[in-house]
Structures are given as structure tokens and as C-alpha cells.
Amino acid sequence: MWNETVGSLRFAVIGTGLIGGSILRRLSDAGADVIGWDPDPETVRYGHARTIPFTDRLSDAVIGRDVVLLAAPLSAIPAALDSVAPHLGSDCLVTDVGSAKAGVAAHGRTTGVADRFIPGHPMAGTERAGLAAADPELFDEATWVLCPDPAVPLRLIRRLIHVVVTLFGAQATLMAAEDHDRTVALSSHIPHLLAATLAGAVARSDSPDAVLGLAAGSFRDGTRVTGTPPRRTVDMLAHNRAAVLAGTPGVEEFLADLLAAVRQDDVKALTELVDEAHRLRDRLTGRPMRQRVHRFGAAESDEERAFLMSTGTTGGQIVDVVSDPEGTGYTFRSPAG
């Protein structure tokens, strides 16, 4: 990417809810050449009133762009990809931001842009929705997963890594789409199930108002994501159904062990189980990390691709990337253990 600077790239954002709107605002605030498109006229009017760049025609948004980001609802991403594909230039990169990747990756292989489509998933968000909730700083230090197909050339993968790290301040990590879905089932989707379970149990209890009257940090934190619009939650669970179902037995088993220890008044076993969970939670922010630069030549190589595709499964992130005529260097942070 040494011969094209991130600042010279032209972007289009298709769909401007929380994630798409945050992308659009971040790029606009950074002075990038960016245009947004949304099917909702009210959203477009809201954007125009705040000098957020929009166009009324989808084709006008896409033609002549270097990077197109699809931020439609998860269930609508395949149709969005079909809609933009005829208007993409020969060197235009297209990516999405949906929270399940295997299905959209498979659909991408059926289009005429399989060699330019990189499924993506920024691990960021809030329970709010819509352009009014957009936050240009939403992606700062967030992990942004990329799931490129083997058909995608490294030069386009490098381009998107530069965009994610340089313009959005995020940390890029790459893995196969199927690996992403198995991993995110436990890191994101099943937590939505557990939050809904707790909130739903209280809703069905004999005294929900009494419970809410005493709800403090544990209940608020444990149910926060149930504030997400239901359609968004249903979309992620339905489109990652197989991985969610594969991940739930481990959750059920651990809960059964906890309940068994409570029923049996086995304080020792209960303490060991809670401590096991406590140690894992501590690793979320307290893991020792190591950092090193991986340097590759300008020519595309299997070695560089293998390194990139291993970054996600090792639990690491690319936190900086520098390209020059001699090649590309990735600053990679990974668990030290």
C-alpha cells in the first residue's frame, strides 16, 4: 500500500445506524472523502441537517469509491452486497460489519466481487441504535475482525488493515469466517442469551418491580445488552445459530456444576468454581502481552498471509502497520503465555 495513502482513499458507507453512522462520522471528522447512503429518508434528513455527507442514490454512493463499507442489518447484508456489486470499480474493496461471518462469506463467493470482498466485524457497539446514537470514537482500541477469503489479494487486505488501524484507531485481527463465528458465539452472542435469560426470568417472576427496585450493578451489568434493539439480537442469534448451539453445552455444564455445589452446600466446590471463573475474568484485562514487529517484503507471499490469518486464533491484534516500497511491517501484540 506504499503507493496509496489512507488519506487519499474514497469511501462509501451503506447503512448508517449505530455502527455505520459511527463509521461515517469518524471518516467525515477525519477529513476523508466519504459519502453515506441509507434507505430511510428520515435518517438522511437527520444527516443533512448536521452536515453529515449523504447521497440519495445508492449507485452514486458507490461509483468511483476505493472502499465500500456495508453496515446494513445483518440479515440485509447479502442483498446489500448484491445491490452494490454492479457499481464497484475493478479495484474497489468492499467489506461489511455484521456480527456473523460464515453466511455472508459464503454469499460473497457467489457474487462477481469474491476477490474484493472482505467480511469484517468491529467488536464495538452499545445498546443504542440509529444515526443519532453514532459515536466517532466508538472504535478506538476496539478489536476489528477481518475474514478474507483466499481469493482476496494481499494488497487489498493490507489496504483494509491500514484503514482499520490508522483511520479508526482499532486493532485488526484476522481469522477464517467459521473460526470467527465459533469464537464470537462465546464472546458476544451467548452473553446476549444469558442477559435475556436473567431479564426474562425477572419479568416472569412474582415481583418484578421489587427486583427492579433493588437492582444495582450486578443486575444492570448482567442485563445491559438486553437494551439492544431486539431485531439486532435476533439477527445475530439466527445467523450464528450453529455456533451458538455448539457453544451452549459448556455454559449449561458449568451452570449445572455451580447449582450442584449450591444444592449440596459444598462450599469448597463452589469456591473452586467461582474462583475458576474469577481467574478467567481477570485475564480479560490483565493478560501479560508481548509485542513485536513482523516484516514482509513488497511481493505477496504465503508467509505473510499465513501470519495474518493466524492473528485472531492466537488471541492477538495488529496495533500498527507501516508500508513502504520495501514491504509492510505489522506491530503485533499477543498473549505472552
UniProtKB/TrEMBL annotation:
Q: Sorted alphabetically, which keywords does the UniProt record give?
A: Oxidoreductase
Query: Biological process GO terms, please?
Result: tyrosine biosynthetic process
Keyword Iron-sulfur in record: no
The transmembrane residues are none
Q: What InterPro entries does its record include? A: 6-PGluconate_DH-like_C_sf (IPR008927), NAD(P)-bd_dom_sf (IPR036291), PDH_C (IPR046825), PDH_N (IPR046826), Preph/Arog_dehydrog (IPR050812), Prephen_DH (IPR003099)
Q: Which domain of life is it from?
A: Bacteria
Q: Which terms does the record give in the GO molecular function aspect?
A: NAD+ binding; prephenate dehydrogenase (NAD+) activity; prephenate dehydrogenase (NADP+) activity
Q: Where is the Prephenate/arogenate dehydrogenase domain?
A: 9-292
Family in the record: Belongs to the prephenate/arogenate dehydrogenase family.
| Name of the protein this chain belongs to | Prephenate dehydrogenase
Taxonomic source organism:
Stackebrandtia albiflava
